[in-house]
């Protein structure tokens, strides 16, 4: 009798262990499958290296110099001193730094720059799938959310960004989107998750600004719809906490906004073409003048996927009110995005110069792919519950969608030569990226034109000239002895035999301050936008130092205040939860 009872106790314990372990085992399997999917989708880059297309040269350049300046113990490298042939650029005053902190951390492990970037791009792809799985897991279950994650990872826009545009920050912005929608659901349900929403929007703000603007607007309208199902206080406080997240990122956002008149930022509208005067087609997105043929293909491809999934939803989900209702929401979500990328939305884009700075409406493709993948997850959750013959037929349709998506990614990844496997192709487009890979600190690298400082009245500084000396006597007679030339600090001595004008090979920006014999001294700006100053006859010890601007100081203050508000809220909500438990 005793032995039978003992056996029953052991069996009950083993069953409990199985119940505890099985969910973890499932998650480990899904995690592993997502890693495998990442390797399969990005195999070309992992095996053969980077392809140097479009934005790749900038990301190599920025990561090289950002990580170098971190090694100089500059905690936030806002001025990239070695770009523009050594004239410098305030790149990270305006470009979000988060991905470059992550890249620097990987690079400091001992990897070379190419392997670091391959890991960064691969990680962004994995996070896109993983975050989508997290988003869908509590909505549709394991299988449906995993299939939706695969649909997101293989969406044509992700491949286009990975292999053609090669924008590193956009890749991570795409990866964050499902996480934001998941955290919104949690924040509306539980007060403590509102802190997570704030942190999310801080991360998004420090990742990519055009996507922050577009995703933020779409998220705002999405969240306002919850007024029909949640209390208005809950919805409004969720939006307020999203604003606090932007407050956390104010050390970056405030200078990025306030200091725009100091650089040639208006040229961003001309990087691809005037989005308000592109070529329009029926139902097609704007096609700016300089844009390649892939964009309309991506739109048609993703739209066809949405059309097929919508047909499946209307034919086979109508009797399931919950599933059909959610399907309709995602169909309307993607339809609204399609309209914003069509000629019908021209007046909206023309009315806002801020919106035009996102460069092209097709940046909405990231949300378009997300909506399509969410619709896929909803449809798959219903297919799983259908009878076997119909389940097999519809599963083949889903498999075909994933196969066609993967096929597009495969073909696009093999369209261009790579550094490790160039073949016999024309390598002209690889040369700027190769220079950034192999000779990053030789003052041979240019930077993007939109971050070049302006001289006055919006006139940009002149193009930098390769091979210029760091210090030059442009007028008078003087001897210069250079003691130190670092990213944020330049020390040198001058022996002037007569009044002399000295030119420093550095673009002027208000953060630069000049000190002669330890006293502040005024800076002049030459016609090419570089720093100069005039001294009388005598001996001088000179320091040129990059310091905080007023906007940066205010940004730090607002960030600290936002941290304090969130900390006070966390303490308050923790006390309330502990009292309720008592």
**How much is the average pLDDT?**
89
Please state the overall shape, judged from the principal axes of the Cα atoms.
Answer: globular
Q: How are the strands of the largest sheet arranged?
A: 4-5-11-7-8
Helix content class? 55-70%
User: What fraction of the residues are assigned to beta strands by DSSP?
Assistant: 5-15%
The number of distinct β-strands equals 11
What is the makeup of the main sheet? 5 strands, antiparallel
Number of domains: 2
Structural class: alpha+beta
Q: Could you give the distance between the termini?
A: 42 Å
Name its key features.
582 residues; alpha+beta; Immunoglobulin-like; 5-stranded antiparallel sheet; 4-stranded antiparallel sheet
Task: Give an overview of the whole structure.
- This protein is of the alpha+beta class.
- It has two domains: 19-413, no CATH class; 471-547, Immunoglobulin-like (Sandwich), CATH 2.60.40.
- It has helices at 2-41, 43-48, 56-71, 91-94, 98-107, 113-140, 142-153, 156-165, 168-189, 194-205, 209-224, 232-248, 250-258, 294-316, 321-340, 346-351, 353-356, 365-383, 388-413, 431-438, 550-581; strands at 454-456, 459-460, 471-475, 478-485, 489-496, 500-507, 512-516, 519-521, 524-525, 530-535, 538-546.
- It has a five-stranded antiparallel sheet, with no helix packed on it. The chain has a four-stranded antiparallel sheet with strand order 3-6-10-9, with no helix packed on it.
- α15 (321-340) runs antiparallel to α18 (365-383).
- Residues 6-11 and 271-291 have low confidence and may be disordered.
